[in-house]
Amino acid sequence: MHLTRLIISFVLLTFGSIVALPSLASGTISNATLPAAKPGTVKLFVNRVGSGKAMDVRNDTDVPVEVVLRLTHMVNVTGVGKGLVRKTVPARTRMRVATLRKRQPGYPLMYQHSFSYSLIYSPEPGKKGSVGGYAYALPWKGGPFSISQGAGGDYSHTSPKGRYAVDIAMPEGTPIVAARAGTVLKARDGQHGRMPNPAGNYVRILHDDGTHSAYLHLRRGSVKVKAGQQVKVGSLLGQSGNTGRSTGPHLHFVVQKAYGDSMLSIPFRFSQPVSTLPNFASNN
């Protein structure tokens, strides 16, 4: 696989629960901009259609997602084969992924389902699900390490400034390096614990296209650069730590662009695959 997949997985178990939202014709894709919703979310909606059920996925992110729908304990259900559905839902789209029908009218339709999805980031432009733009080098040395929270993660990657951030779990003291050349805008090195800055110790770099990359939760006293300094890809910035709003040692990496007086998180791609987020719902 040449795709870097940031997996955000969860499981819903239900006997045909219903969310009352308008239905779309089977298989229809609407590429119109969706109404405002929780930033960076992907949700499954189950609607009654006649005597059966329709399952739609709404993708409010700015990148395509691969969704996996598994149905088990099916009773009187047809229309989903053996119960495994895997489809790609384009960015900012609501799409029908499955329609469940009764095998025998007059008998109940029963099932349990689990739903998971992954945001598709490809290091190869032009590939299915590719995110364009600069391919960022991995911002650390060593590993391999795994993603502990991906884009749109419910814990802290839900705000406009952080929705496409990535947390990579790694031991404190891991060398953190520049993922792209640029000029250091800000660097903080003196925070010891969680307060006062939720980012902890960090480095922010300005790139030649006006975008920023930020490296958060660094170890106190480890930052090696200062504002105004030029850095190249691979330049040592500091060491990973556990400062600021951090639940464990990791690097928080995010690419942003200016939006008014604030910063807006934007999709990005790494130049090589990264280990994916474990499916905690399956205890993997």
Folded structure, characterized:
By secondary structure, the protein is mainly β. It is 0% helix and 42% strand. The protein has no helices and 21 strands. The protein has strands spanning 4-9, 29-30, 42-49, 52-59, 65-75, 77-78, 84-89, 93-102, 110-121, 135-136, 146-149, 166-169, 175-177, 182-188, 201-206, 212-218, 230-231, 236-239, 250-259, 262-265, 269-270. Strands 11, 12, 14, 15, 16, 17, 19 and 20 form an eight-stranded antiparallel β-sheet that branches. Strands 2, 3, 4, 6 and 8 form a five-stranded antiparallel β-sheet that branches. The chain is elongated, with a radius of gyration of 21 Å. The relative contact order is 0.19.
| Poorly predicted regions | 1-37, 122-126, 277-284
pLDDT averaged over residues: 77
The backbone outline, from C-alpha atoms, is elongated
Radius of gyration computed on alpha carbons: 21 Å
Q: Determine the N-to-C terminus distance.
A: 20 Å
